[in-house]
Fold this protein.
Amino acid sequence: LIIFVSLHLQCFSGIGGCHPQILPHQAACQSGCPPGYQCGPYGCTQLRARARAANVFKPDMENEESPDQLFMECCERRDLPKSCLQKCTIQDYTKDALINMYFNRDPCPVSAVAEIQFCAAQGRDHRECCARNGVGTTLAGDKCLVFCDQRPGNVTQLDYSYLVCYDRFDSIKSCFWQDMITRNSLQRFSRHF
């Protein structure tokens, strides 16, 4: 908890929970990017084929993709650098990874955490699951559920009363994972009928 206090409320959600209270990350592309890369908001990112609506999140459940594949594809569509793509799996997106990012002990900039959280949640509202998982049972109460609602445009200004929510990170992440598994299973089932 003390570590989280020292983070000055730079939360692990910016798209759907809050915006990190840090200076914007400056892209490190002054010397140019190598072939096959372009300068993106977090530095050099690998070039990918992009559709016209590439900034709109649309999960593709038609192909039986694993939750990690869905998570990674979202991170790639959001032009996260390779150093951040390493966090775009359920097992690698951890509290320790966040702490390392916040203290600049990781090459992935802390400014990318909001995008990673959005992708982990697949841009959905998971408050119902989070409530069942006890996310609202901290001293902050239901306020912690804000981290579970990652719909685009859902932004909340945080204060110190949200600090205890960090203790529920794994419960929140579990809801994201279970939702991806359930949706994938339902998609597979519906194709058989």
User: Anything to note?
Assistant: The chain has two domains: 24-50+64-120, 121-193. Helices lie at 2-5, 67-77, 82-85, 95-102, 113-120, 127-132, 169-191.
